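Ticket #383: bound-state structure for 4'-deoxy-4'-aminopyridoxal-5'-phosphate.
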Amino acid sequence: MSSIQIKSKLPNVGTTIFTVMSSLAAQHNAINLGQGFPDYAMSEELIAFVNEAMKTGHNQYVHMNGFMPLREALAEKVEYLYTTDINPDTRITITPGATYAIYTALTTILQPGDEVIVFEPAYDSYIPGIEINGARAVTIQLQFPGYTINWDEVKSKINERTRAIMINSPHNPTGSVLAENDMEQLRALTKDTNIIIVSDEVYEHLIFDNKKHESILKYPDLLEKSLVCFSFGKVYHCTGWKLGYCIAPEYLMKEFRKIHQFNCFTCDAPKQVALSSFLKKRENYIELGSFLQKKRDYFQGLMQQTKLKPLPTYGSYFQVYSYNDLSDESEKDFAFRLTKEQGVATIPVSAFYSSGTDNHVLRFCFSKKESTLEAAVERLIGL
Ligand code: PMP
Ligand code: GLN
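RESOLUTION: The complex was predicted; output attached.
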């Protein structure tokens, strides 16, 4: 052991729950409904586009802000979906995934001592991203069991140190979605303030039951104060690609890019080239919601054979289930036991609360082949 010591930037952080549960699943040969990734194939056509891009020489650095035709295709998509005009030159940056986009967004705006309002359960990279920048997360719990926002509580937590509010819809881990009224509340609370919004919209298209995604991109006054983060991995069933993007007004994007250029600088070229063509096939993202809704419904139907009770999900890859009728164990203990003894890995929702709030619920990922879902449920029936 070296005698050299460093002071940890994240003294209270261990290994992310996604890696913990995926490793445990591998170790026990469990079916992995924990970490959110599809186990079915991505588009052959998109793979062919990547091959084509490599063969035709797109193997060198592209512009640090992203391959321009891809940014143009994204601007077209935003215009089509939200009738919002975005200058691809000044307002869109391609990033190595949404996690990076969110981290860079936080680094762009935060100074030591700032406060950021975070709704919990929260995706596990948010609070470390805040704290590493010397800022403080002010957490507000979503109201169980619907996981909705109490806006009066938000109002009571806003003060002169509030630098940002983070939102995520459709929501990971719960699958709740923000409604138009939530956006109105956000508009009212941030009007005439210096508050910036960091919006995680990686599940933009994964929304069910005819609900409409309430994107920041729909609201010009909100967009003027927001950094909005997306992931191609979730849209095109290729989470391992780690490619995403951020959309923001010019004054924020200018600062975002100062950081990006010295961190990643530029992202994978052939995949950006491929996506710039593939994005024009709108049906690929328009049909995504109904594709995933069928999986949710199929999974819910199968799970009726078990003693686990569903909480509603309206979007994302995820469905939360209560095991209250089955055990008094903590979520972590129960999830570990389920993986080891039943051979099904899930994610304990308590991992997304800084205080470890434990409602006896587990997150299941249903973006899987029907045969995988069937095999997993088969193992849960005996519980
Ligand atoms: N935010 C949320 C809510 C997520 O579920 C994920 C995982 N896809 C990310 C961000 C990170 O996305 P990426 O893999 O593109 O970094
Ligand atoms: N977003 C994925 C999830 O929620 C996992 C990403 C990761 O492992 N960091 O399961």
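RESOLUTION NOTES: The first strand starts at residue 31 and ends at 32.
TICKET STATUS: resolved
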